[in-house]
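Q: I'm building a small set of examples for a reading group on sequence design. Run inverse folding on the following structure and report the sequence directly after it, with nothing in between.
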């Protein structure tokens, strides 16, 4: 089934960060994305920064090296790669997923897909022009009490998006403009040099008071985890890439 794409004639770009573009992790994530966003994304593989890259943490600890690779991969993708594939304007949206992502079934909210759901956020004036960023999933969030939630009418108001901050970086939407300057703004707050991108985002949100919407912030799934949102890390199938 074909869909009318948000503002553009072509599909939006979705990048999967992975060590191996032919791996089970990559292909499973690709299938999961296609299931809930049918015919919507041009899915691209983005290879993680190798652990032997000269920029990676010099520690002999493997986890420290992987966390460093994770951070550098996001910086490279945001700053350079997204702009290479942006063909419309500075407000064109791209999406980034880590290679262990799965999604809460849209049918849980009487939806066939999440296409109109993300378009509602992409087209929201504050999100599009001011934030240029939102989460599809997050871990252990702290929600803002300063602003009210956004509700998705097509889900009979059962799907809610609130501002907040937290941990994890497995699913996000970002504009070309925000991607290009995000790390510049984030690094000016001197984030922890030992942390991954999720820690940097969390620290930046707390210190700058810039909080971002989480799509499905009222959805705690799987219920025995700290995941909130429509996207979650599928730990039943894949262990953390940081281990």
């Amino acid at each position: 089934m074909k869909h009318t794409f948000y503002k553009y004639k072509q599909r939006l770009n979705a990048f999967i960060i992975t060590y191996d573009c032919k791996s089970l992790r990559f292909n499973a994530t690709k299938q999961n994305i296609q299931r809930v966003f049918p015919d919507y994304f041009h899915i691209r593989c983005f290879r993680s920064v190798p652990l032997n890259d000269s920029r990676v943490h010099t520690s002999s600890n493997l986890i420290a090296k992987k966390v460093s690779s994770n951070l550098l991969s996001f910086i490279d993708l945001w700053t350079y790669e997204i702009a290479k594939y942006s063909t419309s304007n500075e407000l064109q949206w791209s999406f980034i997923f880590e290679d262990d992502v799965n999604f809460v079934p849209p049918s849980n909210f009487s939806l066939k897909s999440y296409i109109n759901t993300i378009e509602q956020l992409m087209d929201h004036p504050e999100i599009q022009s001011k934030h240029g960023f939102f989460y599809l999933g997050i871990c252990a969030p702290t929600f803002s009490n300063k602003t009210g939630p956004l509700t998705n009418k097509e889900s009979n108001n059962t799907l809610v998006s609130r501002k907040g901050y937290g941990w994890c970086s497995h699913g996000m939407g970002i504009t070309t403009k925000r991607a290009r300057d995000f790390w510049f703004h984030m690094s000016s707050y001197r984030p922890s040099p030992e942390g991954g991108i999720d820690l940097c985002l969390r620290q930046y949100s707390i210190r700058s008071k810039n909080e971002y919407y989480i799509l499905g912030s009222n959805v705690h799934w799987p219920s025995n985890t700290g995941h909130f949102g429509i996207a979650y890390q599928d730990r039943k199938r894949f262990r953390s890439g940081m281990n």
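The longest strand covers residues 160-167.
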